[in-house]
Every structure is written in C-alpha cells, then in structure tokens.
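Most newcomers find our protein records easier to grasp once they have seen one. There is nothing in a record beyond a sequence line and a structure line. Getting from the letters to the tokens is the skill we practise here. An example says more than a description, so a record of this kind follows:
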Amino acid sequence: MKLNPACLFLCCLITLTSWGMGGNSFLSAAAKEAPHIVFEDDSHDFGDLYKGEKASHRFTFSNEGSDDLVIQNVKTSCGCTAAALSQSSIPPGTKAEIEVTLSTNAFRGNVSKTVTVSSNDPEKPHYVLTIEANVLEEVVAEPRHVWFDPVKLGQSATREVDIKPVTELKLKITKVRATSSLLKLRYKKKDDENGYRVTVSTKKDAPLGRFAGDIQVFTNSKRQSVVVIPFSGEIISDVSVFPAKVSYGVVHKGEEAVRQILITVYKKDVKLKKFDVKPDYLSLHLIPDSNNYLHRLEITLGKDVPVGRFEGNVTIHTTSNDQPLLTIPIYGVVREG
C-alpha cells in the first residue's frame, strides 16, 4: 500500500509534537527534583549605630524545593562583618538562619556591606544579602590618622591628636595605649574646651623600618568607650628599601615572574655600589633615578627554577658608613604547570 505523502507528514508531525510534550514534562519533573532557597528578606538596615558598637540580624530562609539544600559557603565582603550559619544541610520544607554581625569600629557615616550565600540551588547558586547602617560618633579624634614623616634613626618625632565629644558628654579619658612599643603616649585635659590632647612620640631607640598600628583612647562614653586612631611611619637612616621581604607566592614552572624593590636614598652623597643575588636563577635589573633618590630594582625569577620551595636574598652594597650592606630575603614556591 502506498502512503499519501501529506498523510505521512501529518503522522510524523503528531509524533514529534507528542514526544516534545512528553519530553517537556520529563524535564519539568527533573527540574522540580532540586532544592530551592528562599529568604524571608534579603536586606536589613540597622539605622543609627555609634562607632564601636556591634549589631546583629538573623536572616531566615527556607528550602522550598524537593531535595536537600546544602549551604556550601557564606562569604562576607569585609572582615568587619561576621556570618554564622545555624545548619548547613536543610531538608525540603524546613528553615534555617544566618546571623550577620556588623562591627562599626572602622566606619563613620553610611555603610553598606554584603554577604554572599552559595548553595546547591541550581536556579540561584549565589544569593546576596545586604546590611546597612549609619555610623555616628560621640567622640572624635583630629587628625583621624597619625602619620610620621621618615624619622632619622636615633631621633624622635612628636605628633598631637585632639580628642573631643560631639554631644553634651562631659568627656573623660581613662587611659591611652598603643599597639606598638615604639611609641610614647601622654594625654592632658585642654583648659579652654571639653576635650583632651594626646601627645604621640616615637622612641629614640626605635629600630630601622616601617611601623604601623593603632592608638586606643579609652573614654567614659557609654556609646563609644574606645576611640581608635591608626598610626604609621618609618625609621630611616641613609638608605631604606621597600618591601623588606620579597615574596613570589606560588609560581608555575616555566613561567617568568618579576618583583620590584624600591630603594630610597635619603643622604645625597651616598651611592649604590653593586648588587648581589642568590640563587643564580634570579636576575637583577636596576632602573636608576638621575636625582639619586628613588631607585627601582627589578628581580626576575627565571624559567629554569626547580619545583619546590626556594629561598634567596638580594644584597645591596652602598657607600654609607651606617648601612654598607642591605639584605632583602626572597622566597616563593614553584609548582608543576
């Protein structure tokens, strides 16, 4: 029997259509066999907080899918925020919480931070939560950061910081301290206003190199019991180098990597004589400064470095009586490519 071509085409079309409908149903059923994360709210505004306060909020979420929801990672956008998960595996139809805590020590004014929740939800594997706050201050420091210009070895430098309230608080400082033993601190009440002056000095026996940390001023404020003031500076002689150590991190074998050292010459009649580097698969290239102030030294890690951890150093020879040699350690790890 010979089939009519039009009839044959119609039969094929019906068959394909039926298969397509069935296939879609199959795919839909498969898609439903998956977890589905749903948050009751994905943002929270703490409103006004005073600097130094901590505030927490619990984000509640549920698994509205048909398979176990697994929270793989909870990542905050900065170290000022912490997130605690009540449980990592959430069966279908159940709830869990993520408690997010904001520390306001480092902020003032409007603050917005995020928390990224990663899970095995195929539709939304990364869910972003947002917390906000307006950070107020009851006690302020001026300046907010203490910076010491390069201080000559064996000498001392002094900076002053004024501490005052911005409310009706009758301010009282109970103590001050620094996170570095290189500083001396004194404070006294100012006669003409409701405030204090903190005197910050470097010690004469401070060693060569960069230093940094925080000054902590303890007050009688119930809202802001501690005022934190960052400080930084450098003790120098005739020559200084930065960084004090050179790290290549992890390098794949066969790759060429370059790092740089900045060499600052503070004494004009001091010259850089020569450079030594170990091991021999490291090479040097000096980019001199015609004014003999800020030189750049490039250190290239060659392609023939053996696999494993390596260590070495660069030695800078100078005409300085105080610093004839400066040695900078070098280290890193080479892995198979």
